[in-house]
Design a protein that fits this description.
With 1023 residues, this protein is mainly beta. The chain has a 22-stranded antiparallel β-barrel. Strands 3-9-10-7-8 form a 5-stranded mixed sheet. A 3-stranded antiparallel sheet has the order 4-5-6, with no helix packed on it.
Length: 1023
């Protein structure tokens, strides 16, 4: 035993050095941290503290071993949950809210615990399904406000689902905010898991940066894995279900060898093969989770916990493609397609037909290893160190497709019907599109994600004045350090124009894309185009790599006073974050880059109080913060790295725990304010780009902004006189070598021409909609030739997705979670969520540093347009403080008028209710051994389409009606029937039937369809 602690001593001493000195990690051979180029100064105070504490741990640990006797009493450490206090769906304690086990009744947080019994009864097979009855937590979204990742998953913009359609299957919405940070035993994890290894799930609502650091604005999901037991136990089950579901699970645990040696093991495994209610989609996965624990004494526990899995899915591409019906939108401008409906085919069920065919796939391999040590140093003082390494490798093939016009082979063009969503019903616009063709390309990706996290914590509690009625109190202290590294390696290859590969001349009619008749309902197949021609070649596209590091140091105090009726918790945390990113562009080497952001620090805090007013009735209040570091190294318009996005939450509530847990409830009211969220308006000024020569004349190229070439354009013709005068004076001129026309706007006649066009546009926008010639007065595209050395305009310094602005929003509402167990065999859960989400600041623009009088008042951010630029408003409304009809020269005065201020722009329902009730019959009767359950979900209408794209471009119909389409309210009912009996009077066996969607609802909600009725039948046995 002393040898064991000598090893721990050396481990602790070395880890104290490593975790406080990133340079040590950098020097390790083969460590991907070598990619980090930026310097890092470790915190000397924490380095010395950890080093000294490691020596103390070793000394006290060795001393403690000498006092151990054969009559040890095994008490749980504060880092473990005593699940013997759980009863069915009721959990008395949780660990996620404070990092140590505490009574849920006392913790001033809104905490929901989903127990293993609840997971089993509802028939959940993975983490997502176990969360179905958690009201306010959305598993599917369609509209994600200003979120650039909304359609970054399989199918892209042709997926009806938004950010929750993630290959990791860990994206949710909580309280209106997207989270992609699922925790496993408190360690971050970004890939799916099988429910066979989930012991319980704890949902913490609101930002929780204090304990878990980054990325938790609306809340977090932390699931606790099943731990080895000293009592032998086995469980096996087989499941059959609709859509060709076949599933096998096993759970085996017990002592490993002599129980007195303190060794135990557990192995959970599953295999599953399943189809889908849609065509072609098929998935198979296997999963195994071996774990080992060693408790050589009552003071020490060592845990080695592992998970390995593989999931292969095919036929996962889009069902159909979005089809624009008003304007010819290039399919590469995907954000402009977001509010269009999907192409439908006669004789094909739009709910199930998968046009993308069987050749798309997503294969995943995942690994997770946790090594954890818990040591009681002296009475009530504990040390815990854990190292978790997780990785996921994703391999995918997808088809990117859209409807285009007047392109591709003429023999495959057809006339189709398409629809633009406006309100989802009465004002939707349908139109016939001539010369339409399906334009598509194939893409293949390899995504490797590695996460390594080290966490070290110390906790100490002491009770003082135990004999005093008024001063008896308990005080607990927690100090922790965590180092997290995330490495991402993404490789993309796809279709490329044959001419670029072989050197043959480019045929613009078909090279670079694959084509298909848009009325041909045969599946899209990899390798052959719609007319039988061979696909365009697959060649390397790009590779991106990133290394992100987060260090967190935190201290937490909690105290119990007034006969333990008053509970206080307070904590501070400091996060230090750095990131390195690189890109190798195989098709455009000029786009290669390496970027290292400076290390940024952020402090956050959390303060809470709860008071037991009456026995079992506790009021609480909480102030907490969240932080999302700028891991991507994003910069603002000045070229400076963005600060972390932050959130501040205020919450008050009431908790009940009455009648020995037969009634438990939480009622809470909250408000979360988030600021600094990165977003890029493509047309916003970015002076840091530096392509505009501020001391040279302003020169535009007049490709289609020429009134002589566009005699039918009224806005150009309105300034024809000024144009001719500028041409006569030489302000408008033709380059003799290229034949292209230019205007020198620094010359008075050139400025007068552009001013005349802009004035005509502003006059049209000033008219009421019913008097305009068209909604979007369009003179042509002025901003051409940014790679032309003769062009010099401030519009060359545009954001275009490379430079970012920041927005602010907030979420407020109230929630309720109620659990009732009126009898030992009856349980009822009812959850309610009310959420109102609103944009409070649509963004901010950088102030462009014009030189002297060389002001480019025709830049794209001043352009009179309906959907960007001035977006239909006047100069004074958008850039107040200008002179006369001119806008304010200071672009930092941008007000963001019309860009979502006060709107939701999100599909979180205002009201959501979920419930689940079961009755188990144990009395001698005909139904003895049976259990019946009924559950369901109801949500109010959801804004699945709003008038802004994920790139910040406004969308409205041709009459100026803003797009705001809402789903119908939705109700889904589920049922359970289970029979349990004993086999050979000692082995419990059961048969369980779960039925989802009892009403067989197959309706359309927004752009998503209800899946209809499904069932699962399970046979299981316990030994």
């Amino acid at each position: 035993m002393q040898l064991f602690f000598l090893i721990i001593c050396e481990f602790s001493r070395n880890m104290a050095l490593i975790i406080t000195d990133r340079n040590y990690l950098v020097s390790m051979p083969g460590n991907r941290q070598n990619l980090m180029k930026g310097p890092h100064m470790p915190h000397a105070f924490f380095r010395n503290l950890f080093s000294q504490l490691s020596i103390l741990i070793c000394f006290l640990g060795l001393s403690a071993q000498e006092d151990d006797t054969d009559e040890e009493i095994y008490d749980l450490s504060p880092f473990e949950i005593d699940e013997t206090l759980d009863d069915g769906y009721f959990a008395s304690n949780a660990i996620s809210g404070t990092r140590v086990s505490a009574r849920i009744q006392d913790i001033p947080l809104s905490i929901e615990v989903i127990t293993s019994e609840f997971i089993e009864d509802t028939g959940a097979v993975d983490l997502r399904e176990s969360l179905r009855y958690s009201a306010g937590l959305l598993l599917q979204s369609q509209n994600d406000a200003f979120n650039a990742n909304s359609f970054s998953g399989i199918g892209g913009v042709n997926s009806a689902e938004g950010v929750t359609d993630s290959k990791t299957e860990t994206s949710f919405k909580v309280r209106g905010f997207v989270t992609d940070n699922v925790l496993r035993n408190g360690f971050r994890r970004q890939f799916a898991t099988d429910s066979v290894n989930i012991d319980r799930v704890e949902v913490i609502r609101g930002p929780s940066a204090l304990l878990y650091g980054i990325g938790n604005f609306g809340g977090l999901v932390n699931y606790i894995s099943k731990a080895p037991l000293m009592e032998p136990f086995q469980a096996y089950s087989i499941t059959l279900g609709s859509d060709s579901l076949y599933r096998l699970t096993g759970d085996v645990t017990g002592p490993l060898g002599d129980p007195e040696k303190g060794w135990a093991y557990r192995v959970n495994f599953s295999m599953q093969d399943a189809g889908d209610y849609t065509e072609l989609k098929q998935s198979y996965h296997w999963f195994v989770a071996p774990s080992f624990s060693w408790s050589p004494s009552s003071r020490t526990t060592v845990l080695l916990d592992m998970e390995f899995g593989q999931a292969d899915s095919s036929g996962i591409g889009f069902l159909s493609v979005r089809a624009p019906s008003i304007e010819g939108i290039p399919i590469t401008q995907t954000d402009r397609l977001e509010t269009f409906g999907f192409l439908e085919f006669p004789g094909k069920d739009p709910r199930t037909f998968r046009w993308s065919g069987p050749d798309t796939y997503l294969d995943t391999e995942s690994r997770n290893i946790l090594l954890d040590l818990t040591q009681e140093i002296v009475e009530n003082m504990y040390f815990k160190a854990g190292y978790n390494t997780a990785s996921a490798d994703f391999s995918s093939r997808d088809v990117f497709a859209g409807i285009s016009q007047n392109s591709g082979p003429e023999e495959m063009r057809r006339t189709i019907k398409a629809r633009q969503v406006i309100d989802g019903s009465t004002t939707d616009v349908e139109a016939e599109i001539d010369n339409a063709i399906l334009q598509y390309s194939w893409g293949e990706r390899l995504d490797d994600t590695d996460r390594d996290q080290l966490r070290v914590e110390w906790t100490y509690s002491v009770r003082i004045f135990e004999d005093s009625k008024w001063f008896n109190s308990e005080h607990s202290f927690l100090a922790g350090y965590t180092l997290e590294e995330a490495a991402n390696d993404n490789y993309q290859q796809g279709t490329q124009a044959r001419s670029l590969v072989t050197g043959t001349p480019l045929d613009f009619a078909r090279d670079g894309w694959n084509w298909k008749n848009p009325t041909d309902t045969s599946y899209i197949r990899f390798g052959r185009q719609g007319d039988g021609e061979v696909d365009e070649p697959i060649t390397p596209d790009y590779r991106t790599m990133s290394e992100a590091t987060n260090e967190g140091e935190y201290v937490v105090y909690s105290g119990r006073f007034l006969n333990d009726r008053l509970f206080l918790v307070a904590g501070l945390r400091r996060d230090t974050n750095g990131v390195f990113t690189s890109r190798d562009d195989f098709r455009n080497p000029g786009a290669n880059f390496n970027s290292t952001s400076p290390d940024l620090e952020h402090d956050s805090s959390q303060w809470g109080i709860s008071y037991e007013i009456l026995e079992g009735v506790t009021a609480f209040a909480l102030s907490s913060e969240g932080v999302q570091p700028n891991f991507e190294g994003l910069v603002d318009g000045y070229g400076d790295a963005l600060k972390a996005a932050t959130a501040k939450s205020e919450e008050v509530g009431l908790k009940l725990s009455l009648f020995d847990g037969k009634l438990a409830a939480t009622f809470s009211s909250f408000k979360i304010e988030r600021t600094g969220v990165p977003f890029s308006y493509w047309w916003a000024p970015a002076p840091a780009r530096g392509d505009f020569d501020r001391n040279a004349d302003i020169v535009y190229r007049l490709d289609d902004f020429n009134p002589q070439r566009n005699p039918d354009n009224p806005y150009l013709q309105a300034a024809l006189t000024e144009y001719l005068a500028a041409r006569d004076s030489g302000a408008v001129y033709r380059d003799q070598e290229s034949g292209l026309w230019y205007v020198n706007a620094s010359e008075p006649d050139g400025a007068a021409y552009l001013d005349g066009v802009f004035a005509a546009l502003r006059e049209e926008f000033a008219l009421p909609l019913d008097r305009r010639n068209d909604l979007d007065p369009w003179p042509g595209w002025l901003y051409n030739g940014f790679d032309d050395p003769k062009v010099n305009s401030s519009g060359e310094d545009w954001s275009t997705g490379d430079f970012y602005q920041t927005i602010s929003d907030e979420s407020s509402g109230w929630e309720m979670q109620v659990l009732m167990s009126p009898t030992e065999n009856t349980q009822l859960i009812v959850n309610y969520s009310n959420v109102e989400r609103v944009i409070t600041n649509p963004g901010n623009f950088a102030s462009y540093d014009y030189v002297g009088g060389n002001w480019d008042r025709w830049a794209m951010w001043y352009f009179p347009n309906a959907f960007w630029g001035l977006s239909g408003f006047s100069n004074e409304q958008v850039y107040p403080g200008g002179t006369g009809d001119l806008p304010n020269m200071d672009t930092g005065s941008w007000t963001g008028v019309g860009y979502g201020l006060g709107e939701s722009l999100d599909d979180t329902p205002e009201h959501a209710i979920s419930f689940w009730a079961t009755v188990r019959i144990d009395e001698d009767s005909y139904f003895k051994g049976w259990q019946f359950g009924l559950g369901g979900f109801w949500e109010s209408e959801r804004e699945y389409a709003s008038a802004f794209t994920t790139a910040g471009q406004k969308k409205q119909n041709e009459t100026g009606v803003k797009i705001q389409a809402l789903t119908d309210p939705r109700l889904t009912l589920t049922g359970l029937a289970k029979y349990t009996t004993l086999w050979k009077d000692k082995h419990e066996v059961y048969a369980q039937l779960n039925v989802d969607n009892l009403w067989n609802d197959t309706g359309q909600y927004g752009l998503l369809y209800a899946p209809g009725l499904s069932w699962r039948f399970q046979l299981g046995i316990y030994f």
